Protein 1
Amino acid sequence: MDAPRTLFEKIWSRHRVLEREDGQTLLYVGRHLLHDGGATAFDVLRRRGLKPWAPERIFATPDHYVSTAGRRVEEIEDPRHREMVEKLARNTAEHGIRRFGLGDPNQGIVHVVGPETGLSQPGLLMVCGDSHTSTHGALGALAFGIGSTEVAHVLATQTLWQRKPRTMRITVEGRLGPQVTGKDVILAIIARIGAAGATGHAIEYAGSAIRSLSMEGRLTLCNMSIEAGGRAGMVAPDETTYAYLEGRPYSPRGADWEAAVTRWRELPSDAGAAFDTEVTLDGDAIQPMVTWGNSPEDALPIDGAIPDPETAPDAERRAQMRRMLDYMGLAPGTRLTDIAIDRAFIGSCTNSRIEDLRAAAAVAAGRKVAPGVTAWVVPGSEPVKRQAEAEGLHEVFRAAGFAWREPGCSMCLGTNGDIAAPGERVASTSNRNFVGRQGPGARTHLLSPAMAAAAAVTGRFTDVRRLLEG
Amino acid sequence: MEAFRQFDAVAVPLPQPNIDTDRIIPARFLSRPREVDHAQFLFHDARRLPEGGQDPDFPLNRPAWQPARIIVAGRNFACGSSRESAVWALFDAGFRCAIAPSFGDIFRNNGTKNGLLPVVLPAEAVDAIMAMLEAGPGARIAVDLPAQTVTAPDGTVHGFEIDPFAKHCLLEGLDDFGLTAGYEEEIAAFERRYGRENRL
């Protein structure tokens, strides 16, 4: 009998074209996603006189540089930003690559578009020139971010040289409490293992608390694997996965669908398969989380207080905590619920899907954004926006005083100019609370959509469970 | 790609963990093509004071470390975003080597594909080297890729591990394109098998 294998190993070996004696492996890329930050890779191709090897396996959508105020390319004010969106259009048109451009009914953030169109599927090896490509692992794919030289190589050959990472299984057993989401689970994981806890590893998330997550919760979970240092994050496909994928535009149909599901059922890690590293968390103990520092590992349950650098385990951590508290304008001992915010941002590839917007709208309904707070909702894609509008969520948000904007990456990293002012404190559903991430001097706190909405309407971090209890 | 064999240069310490690629190059500079000199964006905001002007205390701004071409940093250096321009900013400023207890995986890959050697040393070794660099600003470090050693300012020699493939590519200045070109038949054959089960 064959040795038991992990989900990761099954996908890896299925995409192995060849392996050199030194262990370097040439992997075939089943699906390659592009966004408007990838112009450099096409420049490399042109310089080398190369063209895409398998354009039918490549899909593109502009997200980083699009305006969230309007849909026309001309509405992008900064000529550099406009040029990035135009270059994506030119480069994909030149090579016959399918692009969901501005105005296309499927345009959106690339990591929202992949799953929602059915391009992301179990068992596929997927890459994209963006670190949050780990998102697609929620469908049971092996998906990871690459740099622009690697993007160029994948364009030219549909393959990639890689060394096999180690495997890590993160098991979360138990029942998640009310208002405890995929975002809270991943923040709790990163707080536990650290921002480099999974460096060099492909993560598989397992356990009853993970299985209970919806597909959208799993997408949020896998999205932030990179924030734990992991190359990839995956959840084994199951009935939740198949129900999500069935009938999507690029999902297999008819007999092909049946055959695909039969294949996908073989993917989950075999009983007894060994992982290089095992981590376990108690799902019942996870609370709604908020970050306080400049690394996603600096996360606390909402009832927590800002830690005191004097209690740090070593001098390095003490100095780091002092720098972060200084940047964040926070004093040790301050309760999270006593910290006032200036902005709320609900969006990004982490948390801009329909369930995220429903959760935020349920909090916003019948309430008003607190005086002095600027609150934005940026849907992750055109389909998300259409669905939300069909459900009237945009009216709920507008009535509460939130701005309802057009799909794109927006304030997650501000490449399109959507940034906070220096010193502004942002309750953000995005993925990185780095120094300057949302604009020079901006202070980012990461949290779930419902928690961001609760912060928006109360003007400070608030336990959404208490708010909804009234 | 520029080959890397031996490198001897002034090293600058950045004694902080989790220095992310947003710090190395802020996102608003990512729309610049590769032809633009990216040295001007290196630690653009980190090296400036909030009220404007250069921060004289930022290590790269200190006169003794301005000639630095090796960076020594805390754990998880260059984590976060996959932006290859983080490597370009370092490379264009003359850096050819970064030493840390650990790196963001994507940065590590990007570095070896652009002639910038990432060296992983144990945290104790990095701490010791940092202390020497702080004590004697302007001190030099020697990196020998064929021998896989780093020689600290006090002469202590530290061995390091490197993926043999990355080492080979760096030593020869090879990029992946040339290598893969020899395998087109294998890729095409693989594709014929793979495509049957993965219709688009």
Note: Chain B touches chain A through 57 residues (CB under 8 Å).
Protein 2
Amino acid sequence: MSNANNSLERVQASLARRYRAERRFVWYGRLAVMFALLFVVILFTDIISKGAGAFRLTYARLDITFDPALIGVNDLSDRAVVAAGDWDSLVKTAARARFDGVSGRKAKRELNALFSSGAGYDLKDLLLENPAWLGQTKSLWLLVDDDIDTYFKSRLDGEAYAARVSERQIDWIDQLVEDGDMELRFNQTFFTRGDSREPEQAGIRGALVGSLFTLLVAFCLSFPIGVGAAVYLEEFAPKSRWTEFIEVNINNLAAVPSIIFGMLGLAVFINFFGVPRSIPLLGGMVLTLMTLPTIIITSRAAIKSVPPSIREAALGMGASRHQVVLHHVLPLALPGMLTGAIIGMAQALGETAPLLMIGMIAFIVDVPTGMMDTATVLPVQIFLWSDSPERAFVEKTSAAIMVLLGFLIVMNMAAVLIRKRLERRW
Amino acid sequence: MANSEMIESVNNVSESGTERQTVGASFCDDPKFSIRNASVFYAEKQAIFDVSVDIARHEVIAMIGPSGCGKSTFLRSLNRMNDTVEDCRVEGGFHLDGQDIYQDNMDVVALRAQVGMVFQKPNPFPKSIYENVAYGPRIHGLADSRVDLDEIVEDSLRRASLWDEVKDRLHQPGTGLSGGQQQRLCIARTIAVNPEVILMDEPCSALDPIATARIEELIEELSQNFTIAIVTHSMQQAARVSSRTAYFHLGELIEVNPTEMVFTTPEHELTEAYITGRFG
């Protein structure tokens, strides 16, 4: 009896300590989660606060006279003449007409520097769309130079950054603002153009389309190959030392630094097979190498999770092994496989290093139109912009990161949705 | 009934001469299945020792014995389900209607169409009830038309006495049925292929008593058209459904006799020890 009392006392004495340990343990977990969340929040606020500005650009309004004599173009249908036209002079003339008393080479140069160096070409495109404008005067919004854009935005934020604008330019900007001729407008350029040396002209369309083509190639190659390998290894391969060796190596391959796959692509695809550099086809092939292990591993896990009783049932009915796989195992494993593939693709979308090795880091202005056009991809574009000296590229970089993160979040959500939607219980 | 065809074999010495004493009536004339000197190995470990027995046409033979005695292994070697087990090796003669099922030219797919199987845990495909039953006829090309297939499905479900319960929801998932219904669905699925032999591996062990009683009724009905070999843990079940009972012990076949006799006057002392509950 006393013995029983004794042990009860002991148990009670230890209870408080045990509960304390449990609470401590729960708090460790909470702190860890909070710590991680804090960094996510910091990351997102930093990127969004830096990048949000890139979705709007500064435009200035000028009265442009499309004077045939000034441009040297009378016939808009003659491409050679149009290309050789002096389009910049449209902007220069209109600017000089807008502000009085601009004399001297320095003042003129500063005035011209107000506007984007691409503004003249934008006018050319406008005129080609509206040929009737030739000889007429139109009030049009023009892109300003990136330095002016940076200054104007910082001024709106209350902290004018005037290091790269002159006193005279500030005067002109004041006049434009006063007349309501300078404002921020939605930055369409960012989504419709490829890369440019001029920040105000640079867009992510080229990188986005490049990423899309690259992922398309990667998916079309890695999904069938990965699923095929997984099905063979799980359902058909005899358990031998060889298959074990292959398994171990596939798992190891998943941990190989991605730049190694780039080297492999360079050595095999470019040097040996002579695939052209910098194209989405090649990028897709290299990313296939990289995502294959992920897809094989997740597909095998999906196949493994199909209950053996289903296989037995089908085999017991007299289904052949390939019928068992095709009719029962694959349909049941497909959601898991797709999830794995999407996660693999998300990984590939964010991959930079292997693509550097195969020349997808080139500066490419044109938006690619096919698998064989030179292209770059989103993360590489981010890398290129982050490396550029112009201050205006800072916000572009952050904006591109936002777009990339957006795509990654959408892809991961798609993976979760597919898993939820198609998941079967038995 | 099948019992009348039994030939008394008191001293059962296997053909190869190895003496494994199976007492009772192991053999019969014109058997559906005849098994001689069967041994099954898992890698190095021998699970079945030199078993010889006949299974008569349209009889229900029950296999009982303590856990791990090899009765399931033996059952699964009758339609070569053991082929799927890595390292499993089967020796001896297995003749279905005189044909060796382990011969090289024997097609496993064809064999399993002839020898169907019902498993311990109900395992309907995660498809509709209709698709579950139609699957076998479909892969074996047994139906010429949609109408044909509908007929096979209805007939199989009727024979599995499930039709009335599911006729209004044929296109709902089979996994939504109760455990007993699922098992009857599995039986319907098996008989849809019109096999000659049905192997049942503890078909009621996952079911409640009422569902069990329905399956037992069903087994009795099915025995008019099919040869049934059933492995069971429940001696009462063996007594209720089977005409002959085989008692396995540690991989050896100890005794085969008419069920009544096994449960009233067993010949072998091990059998007696088991049925009186001294072990198992």
Note: Chain B has a mean pLDDT of 87.
Protein 3
Amino acid sequence: MEIEELRKEWKSIKTPQIDLDRLKDMTIEKSHPVLSGIRKQLTMELIGWSAVLIICFTGLDADAKTMLANAILIISVTIPMLFNIYGYKLSKEFIAGPDITSSLQNQIRSLKRFAVTSVLLRIMLIAGVGYFFLSNININPGKLMLLGAGSVLLLLPLYLLVRIWTKRVGTLSTTLRLLKEHE
Amino acid sequence: MSEKDFLSMIQDNQGIIHKICRIYRDSPEDREDLFQEVVFQLWRSYPSFSGGSKSSTWLYRVALNTAVASFRKNRPNITTTEYLPDVQFEDINNEDNERQEEFLAGIRQLSEPDRALIALYLEELSYQQIAGILGISENNVGVKLNRIKVKLQKIVK
């Protein structure tokens, strides 16, 4: 197909007409499909970890643990949750520069920072919760095995998290590299 | 400019957003999500749109930026026959649909930056405008376009 034919074909593509009311809905954050999914996930995590904290402080003898163990538990759970809220805000920001190249560069930089912090905070969360449960208890072989199994269960999501971030950053980096090819 | 002006500008220019969605996403659901994401991003960046550049240039930049940078949902890759009769988002009463789909599928075989370049070229933007939107040199626009045209002519026969 010659270039003029390609152009003609492009121009002849029929597109639907969306009315003003529906377009207006699309500008509202609440009706955004991806953001509403993230919000649901955030809410569930927030409820889940709040429940963990309540269970720890009411049913798991938190008063028998040291003040330090209690403080570590609260900090290691609260900071990742707050960081996730920041992540939600970040997920709305795609346009970060006057042109697509600089926008992608800025986005990759900010995603890398976010990914590293997110993984570090997840490690902190695992370590903090682990420290709380293990403080003041005597470790015997049975408990050690339980601890090993628990660690594997906690490390698997961490591995998946690293993989997701590596893939996201990798995809954007490839796009940027191809865009800047021959520059 | 007010929300009303913004919406009427989007309504007037929604054809190009639909076309961008069709060259960047495979399924109608993903295209619908991307369309909404583009409108959302345009609305968010609208206050910073000074009017210094043409509204169409700003629209192309935000729409293409969103298409290449937004995350895709992991949907199962299910191939079905055409759209359900009650789905109105994409035009199903188009008798040239098959040929157009073949043409768009050809463009979708290009890399993501190449799709942006060819879309802007087919929209008849100048090399200077394309370079400004993408943030690359005019010379590079020319080099890339020559390569893409040859590739596309082979894909779309």
Note: The mean pLDDT of chain A is 88.
Protein 4
Amino acid sequence: MATKAPTQTEFGEVSRIKGIVFKYVSFVASIVGILALGVLLAYVFWDALGLESAGTGWYLAYTGTLLVPLLAFFAYARTRPEVVAGAFELFSLTLAGVMLTVASVIILSIIASPAVWFAYFLTVVGPLLALFVYGQYEREATWVGLAMLLTLVAGPVVGTLGLGILTTLGSLLGSPGVYFLSLVIPGAALAAFLAAERFDASRRLSLGIGVALPALAVVAVPLVDTVPAISRSVWLIALVMLGLPVGYAVANTARTRERRSAFALPVIAVAGFLAGGAIVDAIGATKPSPWLDWQYLTSSPSISNAAEAGLYPAIIGSIFLIVLVSVFTFVFGVGAAIYLEEYAPDNGVLGTATRIINVNISNLAGVPSVVYGLLGLGIFVNIEAQLGPLTYGGFGVGTVFTAALTLSLLILPIVIISAQEAIRSVPSSLRQASYGMGATRWQTIRNVVLPRSLPGILTGTILALGRAIGETAPLIMIGAATTKFSPPAGLFSKLTAMPMQIYAWAFLPGEDFRYGVVAAGVVTLLIVMLTMNSVAILVRNKYQQEAN
Amino acid sequence: MTDSPSGGLSRRRFLTSSGALGALALAGCTEQSSGSGSGSGSGTGTSAGGSTDSAGGQLSGEITLTGSSTVYPLATAIGNEFQKEHDQVDISLSPTGSGGGFSNHFCVGNSDFNNASRPITQSEQDLCSENGVEYHEINVATDALTVIVNTENDWVDCMTPDQLRQIWRADGASTWADVNADWPDEPIKRFGAADTSGTFDYFNEAILGEEANHTGNYEATEKDNLILQGVQQDQYGIGYFGFAYYQGNQSAVKALGIDNGNGCVKPSIESAKAGEYKPLSRPLFTYPRKEALAEEHIAEFARFYVEQSANADLVSEQIGFVPKTEETMQSELEALNQVISEVQ
């Protein structure tokens, strides 16, 4: 419509049609893509939550008590960015707290026993915390960093050698005692510190907070004992891992006047949920019969009876795996990126080597995951090498450690590339200024480069972890189990992961499996992944605000 | 309780008071937990790699099963039952296909059991003996391989093995009319098992025999539901898979009877049990590794596996295989016990 032959006017007319066509084609394409995905997810959630069987009364009740107030809150918050920020912080820190609690319960009490955790707390975590705190107070003590590094290397060795004695000590204390000493006391110190530093609370108030937390831990024990689902250990872990983030979010939101209306969100959610339940009971409406329920999350898989099927061993396996993978990739990935960007020579023979490494890393990011599975099978399972007196025979077929290393290999290139991009985006004038103040290269990296590039690094890492948690092919290659009835007992026992079990269910004869149970598994996987992502988004936003 | 009114608290004072509080709380915690019998928080507190602590006669350790995806549901159901009785035993199952399990896992010593929907082949035996892996063969159930057609297929209810051979052999019939002139002159759409599967091997042997090759002109898959969907969507489709999958989807497709000279016999648990459903009823196996049977928890699981193979409720109702009779189960159990006593 806008095309015209060249006219006599001097500048002529330029066709805008290409630009307009491009704009609308892209728009329609992305809308179609998002809608298709949305419809698919809606189907999956519909099946997983068994919404088909719910009666009209149930829908009406929850629309009235939960959906409408929530929509009203969103409409209200739309024009108030402070409220949105507050509500997002409350929501994601609560999610993060739940995630942390679940992960801690899984790692500290299911995978490692409390006594083993206590042994390593005494030799690794405790000294590290103490050194860190000392380093914060005594800025002059430059040996602290080195001492921390030494603890990190020597601590695990000492802990492993003295495991016998130290676990006896831990068992003497009993598991609640262990968690009280190793979590609640440091948690109380952290709470007191945060109150004083972040919220400018008076000294007495912060000390009061520091004392109140352990006191609460003890005082609430009789109450906790009446709830059979929560053991004392779980209560102590949740108090620290869930209580601290939620407390922080609440304090942070309450501090700013404009943010306070954000508290309406949790109030609406909880009250709406309870009111909806009460109304449904009162009018006797048919409730949905979800596949995804507590039984599903806590029982072991079944092949013959869909109603008894559960995902528990696979959930634990996946979370164990992803925790290990995130530690490996963060340490190795960010380390490699810092080296390549800040230390590696970029001219001469060594410079050529650096360029070759960079090109290779970019190429490795595109290698299919099956190939990484084969690589993992080769170097972590089937290898037999004689290194002097030591024989290296791999880490076992389908063990947690093998799987974590293989998945780390898979996502390391992506993590390295995104971390390099993020480090490169820090203006070099900042570095020069830091050098000009007499800072060393390491100090510059720690105090200038890393804080500015952390949002980018975290974004890349989290996206990569999201890919890792859904991977199946490398796990099949290294011989991970498809079905297990108990979670992995340690680093070197076999594991199964959520995608493996979901894939096996998807090909069973029963319709209940192919639709209900599989859908519930997919939703569980999505929830774990989205929780992880939302925590990352929060951290990223925080650092972005600080950087600006 | 430590909130002394003397203005600014000294650090030492705070340390002592909070330390006292901590000690107090700790004492409370430990005493309570030991007092309330068997510790409320330490229910799952087993240390890693505890395969040696079978002091109280409780079995513990790892068991790995690989092999046929046909037998996988049966093995999983039995494993689940076993786990309920011995919760310290850690069972891992992977459906790898009969051949895949032998060559990649079992014969290199990486798994304790390999399930198979056909007997072990000569080349697999060679691979096992090359690696010094000895095994014991256990027949755990019987499956009725089921040939299915579309529900709108109204021209055939029954086929002879010879007709099946014409359809599935290489260079065989290309339209239904090629097999029987009364049938429609439409191309045959075939859906079958991939050649890594024991189902393929068995069908090949039972129907095609030595002289004919399996056609390559078909949709080959390891996944039974793809065969089901293919046949369900195509009026001229034909496919085959284990009876268990048909039992779960009886209304979706039509199962063909087999006429092996004694009239038409429909696939069912009863006909396979009576030995009438021929030649497509096939034995299913599991192969424990002899070396692994030396360990008590694996030997116990092998016994349990054999005992459960006569459990009609589990084998036929839940899974869809033909269970073993009490006598054949007993003779399998004796043979197994013989092997176990040799290695232990």
Note: Chain A has a mean pLDDT of 86.
